[in-house]
Structure formats: C-alpha cells, structure tokens
Design goal:
This protein is mostly helical. It is 64% helix and 3% strand. The chain has six helices and three strands, in the order H-E-E-E-H-H-H-H-H. The chain has helices at residues 3-35, 69-82, 87-107, 117-137, 145-158, 172-198; strands spanning 44-45, 50-52, 58-59. The longest helix is centred in the first third of the chain and has 33 residues, at 3-35. The chain is elongated, with a radius of gyration of 31 Å.
Amino acid sequence: MTANSLSLMLSGWFVALLFWGCMTVDGLIDDELAEQPATTKGYHSLEMMTAYTPNGEFTVPFACGNDTHRCMHICDFCNHLYGAPTMDCLSTLFSHLCLSAFESSMASLSSTDWCIWGNVRGLYSNLSHCTEEMSDCLLIPWPNQLVEETFVDIHSRFFHDCPTEELSDPPPVIVLALVIIPICLIPVMVSIVVFKTKNGDGS
C-alpha cells in the first residue's frame, strides 16, 4: 500500500467519522435544547462544527441549498474547513463521499463486468446523483467543471478498455464501388435517352 493511498484512506475515514460525530452530537444537542431552550445560545459542538440558534435552528454564515439534515451538515463541513462553499470543498466531498462509494462498488465487480452497462448503471447513476446533491447543497451549479473532470477521470480509469459501438468508415474498395457505379450509369442512361429519341420512339 502506497503512502498516497494510505493517506487517502485515512482522510476518507476521518470525513466519515466527522459526519457520524455531527449526527450523533446533533441528537444530543436537540435533547439539550428541548430541556434548556432559554440558556442555550449559539450552542456549538465538536469545536464549533455545528452552530445552532437559540430556538434550535441550524445556521451557517452562507446560504445552503435546502433544509435537509444531510445538506446542513455538508454546508457546515465546508464552513468549518474552507470558510465558504468553495470548489475545493466540493472536490473533497466528491472524493470522500461520492467517489469512494463508487470505487469500492466497482472494486467488488470484476474488470470484465465493468463494460456491461447493466452491471454499472446503478453505480454510475448513484455517483451522478451524489455529485448533483453535493453541488445543490452548496448552491454550486451542476454540472460544472469539477463534475466533468470527475466523470472523465472515472471513464479513463474504469471504462477505457470497453468496446464502443461507433460507426466506422467502410473499406476503401466499397467506397470506390459506391462512387464509380453511379458515375458509370450516367453516360449509359444518357445514351439510352439519345438512342430512343433518334429512333423516333418517344415513349
């Protein structure tokens, strides 16, 4: 195992643990807010990872895509690590949440199964949905350059050996025959018309 793959794996576990911790602490915070709503002002957990208003609402200093629990945690993650919903944060989320799931699912298939669309259609769709959800949460337009780079990367890594059903040019002999036959028929047809006209047979 290389140092690069080890650091990628450890950072993936860190992000997963971070999300799990946020969700666990969120349940505890909701219980505390229900018991002591008047004394809990701007309660922060996990070293200011999750911010709440006095009435228990989740807040971040920028607009977040929607009010789902997962989306709020994604926005909070970007707020804590990057200070804003940046493309760097989106790249981190893609790597640790979307691509890691896709790569582990693809690893469970044999490389010959990668080229069978029925085997990878669901995985590919899940990856697309995940990238769209992350972008929507951060209010970054989807598709974007990062999404395109992500899909070009997975195509070059997983699908580059798959046969394509592209149409190709026919062999030169067939092209020549298809071009020469109509050219030769034109003088023959003109000769027939002239011959018929000279004989006075107008029909």
